[in-house]
Structures are given as C-alpha cells and as structure tokens.
Amino acid sequence: MIALNRAELRSLYALCIRHRPPGGRPLDASELVALEALLDKLREMIAAHVDVVERGHKVLEWRVPAAIAPSMNSWGAMKTWQRARARTELGDRLRPLIAATPGADLCGSTRMRIVRCTRFTLQPKLVDEAAADSIGGKMPIDALVRMGVLAGDDARALRRQAFVLPTKRGNAHLLVEVFEVALEEVPDPGPKDGIVDQITRTRGKFTRAIIDGEKA
To answer: Which one, 18, 126, 203, 213, has the greatest CB density within 10 A?
Structure first.
C-alpha cells in the first residue's frame, strides 16, 4: 500500500505551514522539486483509494440492552435455549424499529453497509475493527441480517467498526449504528451515550422451585 514516510510527512507539514496567514516567502527551487514529488505521490495514493468505501449517511440506530448483546465469551457460555430467547427478544425490539425507519430494510438488495458497534460500559478499553462481535455485536448483527437490514455478515456485504466508551452504572448496552457506504465520508458526530430500557427477567416456576428447594 502506498504511504508517505516520516520525512515526506514533515515536508508536507512544512509546506502547508507556509500557507498560514500572512504567508511565507516563495518556495525556492529545491522546495518546488520536493513539492512536485509529494504531489505525485499524493496523486498515486488518491488513485489507490478510489474504490475504498467510506461511511455514508446513517440508516438506523439501535440501542441494545447488555443482556441480549453478549460478548463472545458470554455467548459461548450460553445454553441453546438462552440463545433462542435472546434471538426472540432481539427480533421483538428490532421489528418495530425497522418499521419506523424509512430505508432501513434493504428490500432484497445486496449492497454493502457499514455497522458501527459501540459498547457503553463502566470499564472502557481499546478495541480493533475486528472486535465488533467480541464486544457484543454478533447477535444484534445476526438479527439485522435475518430481518433484511444487512445483506449478509461477510466482507462483501458488511464492514464493521468497533468502539468502547464509558457510561453510568446500570446503563451498560450496545449501540448499533447502520450506515450506507459512500465514495466520500459523510461528517458524523460519533457514537453518543443514551438511556436504555434494560431487560428485567422474572424467575419461572421451575427456577423458583429449585431455589426454594435449595433454601429449604
């Protein structure tokens, strides 16, 4: 991949600084040669990125309670019935959101979209782009695929982004944002924290009977 080295970046920085008001002296011959070399390399870099997709306008925003956006470690420890329950709860929350969001449903199109997953937690940490599933994005992304918001979860249909940010106690959740792709990036303020309606579970008769039996 074409890239500028440190010396070239320093030269580019110095040349840009010269254009600050009130402006500096004209470039001398050696500086003009360096400028032309930098421009040639920048043209190559622009050409190399002509097919790179950027983040376009936002299609959908979905705040998912932590209980149904498990990390990969938690997902691996879930029983089959727990995963099935989480899939149902995800669908129940996502369905009305899609219906209320014009353009969210791809209606059978196979075009690529970008998903930005942000985990809001009391203990934020750095993550890489491949960590969207590991911070809780796997099940919500699967739900988006099942319900037609995403054409798939492979590289041809989906580009993932992942972040972890702080929130207050009791408000841990996953913010899932879906964007169209574009040739030029659309300005975006970035993920913002928000209040989430958490899931509260009541114990069933079977669970209560076991617990009562153990207490007795």
So the answer is: 18
